[in-house]
Design brief:
By secondary structure, this protein is of the alpha/beta class. The protein has 13 helices and ten strands.
Amino acid sequence: MTFTNIEDIANYLVADGKGFLAADESTPTIGKRFDAINTESTETSRRDYRELLFRASGMDENISGVILFDETLRQASADNTLLKDVILKTGALPGIKVDKGVASINDSEEVLTGGLDGLEERCTEYESLGAKFTKWRAVIKIGENMPSDNCIEANMQALADYAKIVQQSNMVPIVEPEVLMDGEHSADACFDATSRCLNSLFANLESKGVNIKGVILKPNMVLAGQGSSSQLTHEDVAELTMKCLLENVPEDLPGIAFLSGGQSDIDATANLDALNKLGGNPWKLTFSYGRALQQAALKSWLGQSENVVNAQEAFSHRAKMNRLAALGKWAEDLEG
């Protein structure tokens, strides 16, 4: 696949009905996922698991991009094919997570994502290895006196600095300002925090001269905290999320790929579908899911080679359901 510029890449990534597989779990994170299925996390087992996803039939029609961890971008499959080439054969593009995780801000509960040091050099290498896009995640918590203006501004400045560096390396930056679901906060509190983040983010992107037409936004949906007794319907989630986006996101952004952020498989699909059924938005609305695409496959696989086909079928089903949701054509009875 040949692209003239980053705008072409961005538009390809948000093609109708296609979304992202987030397979960029760090080694410690995927270790925890493997612990839950009594599987040892080794370089080989991590490769085998990710390879089964990339070779699943559900990749072809439903996935436009795969977000990878550094290890995976460099790995070869069991038959010695580079995993990035396995991905390319499905029509999807390989991407890479480039942030270095979070650290506390002034010993508080709030955190700032790091990784700007040496990013230009790393991006040059990743582009040479075949990555077409990148991802950087900012983590925003809701709680007493949180999120603070200082936390939001520091994280959104870092996202803008990251995006500028990535575009200079001819890759598309995915900017991910995630307002966490953790806590008992209301949906209104999430709406307020998300609005503040998006307002600051796009002001910083503009001030840094980032080409918005070559950026993809990966935000949370507007949800009540997981511990809240007042949960929203899918339709209410869609209406609040759309209101937040319309008030804060410029129209020339090509697409928005939502994170699942701890939602169940079905809720992540149903909420995306409700958003697309609303209509009236200037951007493509799609998915960039990790657990919400992988969880059923992981439970089917259990680290056993004889379970690969079942795991691929589970992944392919979820990918198809989210394709339909990205088109506003999903219905619960399709879940079987």
